[in-house]
Each structure stands twice: as structure tokens, then as C-alpha cells.
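User: Need the bound-state model for LLP:
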Amino acid sequence: MDHFALRGGAMFAEDVPLATIAEQVGTPVYVYSRATLERHARVFKEALADLGDVHIAFAIKANPNLSVLRVLARQGFGADIVSVGEMKRALAAGVAAKDIVYSGVGKTRDDLAHALDAGIGQFNIELEEEGAALAEIAAAKGKTATAVLRVNPDVDAGTHAKISTGLSENKFGVPIDLAGDILARLDALKGLNMRGLALHIGSQIFDLDPIERAYAKVGALAMDLRKAGHVIDRIDLGGGLGVPYERDKVPPSPADYGAMVKRVTKDWGVTLMFEPGRVIAGNAGVLLTEVIWVKPGIVRPYVIVDAAMNDLARPAMYDAYHDFDAVHPTGEKMVANIAGPVCESGDTFAMDREIDAVKAGDLAVFRTAGAYGATMASTYNSRPLVPEVMVDGDRFAVVAERVKAEALIEAEPMPDFLA
Ligand code: LLP
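Assistant: Bound-state model below.
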């Protein structure tokens, strides 16, 4: 459930008409609902309430906006980061360093040193060499890094190939068959305190079955490792739960997920950790856009909106579906293609889709844009970087400014040899 709904014929975000935001901030603009973020955080926590003391780290790659992070930090969420930039954001938003988990397959020695200095809570090691480097850096600083080993369980998550991470050919984690030997070698290193395992098999997963199989595999490995004398007191189960981009395709609920986790992990005797991203932020945001033209087409008209693939990359990158709704629907429908102004045919949000009838100057939203939306935006075609707004009841604020062409030009010094 979200807080973007029609009232008296106009779409609101909580108690703010989207038309007011468009008028004051301009379009395109991402609009987040604080109440929706809080609701999703609560629902997720409630779904895991039976599992004892769990640690939930929001995967901030899904939405690293500082205000979004602050809302979630106040709900008790830590942060799952994949870069030092994300670490800085988490800290700036008020996430405690001890609640930060650092994932990612390409951490440099510099990254590891920065994160150690900041005192983050956990490193998720993706390869033996990374663990060895971390141990060496920590020992040189007289520190001990708390870490878990990310295991690749070789389970097909059944999601889009570009967001699948748990197959043996994917770049993530160590092969499950080698995990025991690698852990034994890492355990022996000074500077490293290995505490358990991590996994994450993909994103936008619609079927709990592969998740359950992956968890069961890692659970069995954990029990073997414990028998062999290793400390296994935490297991990080990653993120990946899908959200309903299409109204008639409903993913498993957080409660279904929680029940499955409880069943699979009941004998593990560990602290469970989670890294949800999309399920928290996805439906808490929309991309508000204005129709520039309705261009007659040979087969279908093209609704040309002022948002483009640089603002919302998911349709161009993953053929992703985002609902498109008019802010002031008339009840009439049309069948159209929806595209942005960027000079690529891939800058198309939908083809041959039945949508609310719109005309030039109308406002509309792409729904479920709160995750992997603004964070993946670019300035391609020298378009301004898209701004973000947060709504809280009947008030709203710009939480990321539109970065205009002038500012981007300013950041490009002309070398002396071209003066
Ligand atoms: N943990 C790790 C280690 C991850 O790699 C990810 C996502 C998550 C947690 C959070 O997954 P979530 O709960 O959000 O599914 N840009 C793509 C999604 C990329 C996901 C990358 N990893 C998209 O727009 O669909």
C-alpha cells in the first residue's frame, strides 16, 4: 500500500496535490512519501518479529537520498553499502557506523581502509584475496575487522539476468563448495574476526522457492562449518524481495517471506541479517512528469513526456514495466507508446499500452519509482540531474535539487592547452 492516490479527481502524495509540486519544483521530479517509507519499514520489521534479534540494513543503492536514509534510520534500519560514497551518505543521514554492512565485489584497499577507520559493523567478503587484504590493513592499524564470507549458492533466482547474482557464473561471492576451505584460511588471519556467512541471489524475486533453496544450502554449510569449529553466529540473508510493478502481478508479501525464513532458519542459532532495498523504497516514490507532445504515430501515438531514460533507466536497461497514470484522469483511455526526449529509440517507457488519455501539458506519474530510480539517473543528453521531493503529510520539501546544466559545465575545467 502506498500514499499516492486520487482525491476528488486529482492525484495526491499523502495530503499534497502532485500538481502543487509540479508547479513549485517543476518536472520531471521524483516524489517520495515519508508515510509510505515508514509503513514499508514497519511491515518488514513486523514480518520478521518472530525471528528474535535481527539486523535490518537498508540496501541504500536502491535509494541513497539522505532524507530517505534518515527516515529509515529512525525506524531502526542500518545500511547495506557498496561504496565509500554510500558509507558517507549513511553516516551523514545518521546511521550508526556499527549498523553499516559493506557488500560488493570490488572494494579497493583504500575503500577497506576508509571503512575500517569509520568503524563500520561488518564487511561482507566476496573473495579470499579481499579478506586477506582486509586482515592485513586492519592488523597494520591495530584493529580487527568483523566480517562474514559471502557465498554464491548457485541457485537461479528466476529474475532478469541483469539482476541475478546467485548463479555460479555471476561475479558475486565465493563458490559454495570452496567456502569451507576459504573460511578456514581467513579464520587464521590476524586482523580478521570471521563471524558467519552472507548471500544474496538477486533482486525483484517473485518466487520464494529459490530463495528458500539458497537459504537451506547456506544453512547446511553453516552447520557443517560450525561442527568443524568455526564461529558462525550471524548469517546475512541479503535482500531481493520483489514488488508489484504491475497491478495484477502480486509478489510474496513480507509476511510470507518472514514465515519462510522462520521455517528454514529455525535450527541455525544465529543472528539473522537482512538487506532489503526495493521492497522498502519501490512503492514509496513516483516520477512526476509532464506530457510535452502527443505525437501522431503510424501505428500508435507517441506520448512524449519530459522524463527520459536518464531520469528513470529501468525500462531501457531491463525492459522494466512502470505503471503510468494521469494526475488528473478524465476516465478516458488511449492506447499509446510512451517515450522521453532523449535521442535513442531505447528511451521508451512503454509500447502499445492502454493508459489514461493524456494531452500536451498534462501531468502523469510513473509509479513504483522510489527504488533504483533517481539513484540511477544521469545527465545524458546534458539534461539536468533530476530533483527529488519528500512529502510528509500536508508539507513537502526538495530533498535533492535539480542540478542544472550550468553547474555541470562549471565542473568541466578547460585545460590551458585549449585556452
Ligand atoms: N544486497 C545486495 C548484496 C545486493 O546486491 C542488492 C541489490 C540488495 C541487497 C538489495 O536488493 P533488493 O532488495 O533491492 O532487491 N538496478 C536494478 C536492481 C539492482 C539490484 C542490485 N543489488 C533494478 O533497477 O532492478
